[in-house]
Amino acid sequence: MAMKIRLARGGSKKRPFYRIVASDSRMPRDGRFIEKLGTYNPLLPKDSEERVKMDVERIQHWLDQGAQPTDRIARFLEAAGLREKAARDNPKKGAPGKKAQERAEQKAAKSEAAEAPAEAPAGE
Fold first, then answer.
1. Count of domains in the chain?
2. pLDDT at position 121, please?
3. Does residue 96 lie within any of the structural domains?
4. Does residue 103 form part of some domain?
5. Which domain holds residue 76?
6. What are the residue ranges of helices labelled H in 1-124?
7. What is the pTM of this model?
8. Nearest Cα to 18, choosing from 69, 68, 53, 58?
9. How many angstroms separate the Cα of 16 from the Cα of each of 4, 27, 72, 97?
10. Largest CB tally within 10 Å, which of 38, 56, 87, 98?
11. 67-116 pLDDT, tens per residue?
12. Cα(92)–Cα(90) distance, rounded to whole angstroms?
């Protein structure tokens, strides 16, 4: 059985609240889980201690059993000092999209066209 430590959403519309749970990876996001390991409230300020609460001992138990944390949970564990910080390298994420690249090319072409005639009369 492939175990995951992940977030299960609760709360009302536009007021998210998440439980940190250990569950079978085949179960739905908000479906059946084996154990509740903590909570995450994204509406609280980032420096609030109530924002992320975790039962560190139980999370360590599930990690020892082979449970895989999701990306968000892995970040929480890194902040708590339970895991080493993983190297994240996504060089394409910071690159502009196709439309933005096209706009930049058009802007560069316009500026070159505007500069070329302005220099010719000044050189005469």
1. 1
2. 58
3. no
4. no
5. 3-80
6. 56-64, 71-80, 98-123
7. 0.68
8. 53
9. 21, 20, 15, 30
10. 38
11. 999 999 999 999 888 888 877 777 777 788 899 999 999 999 988 888 76
12. 6
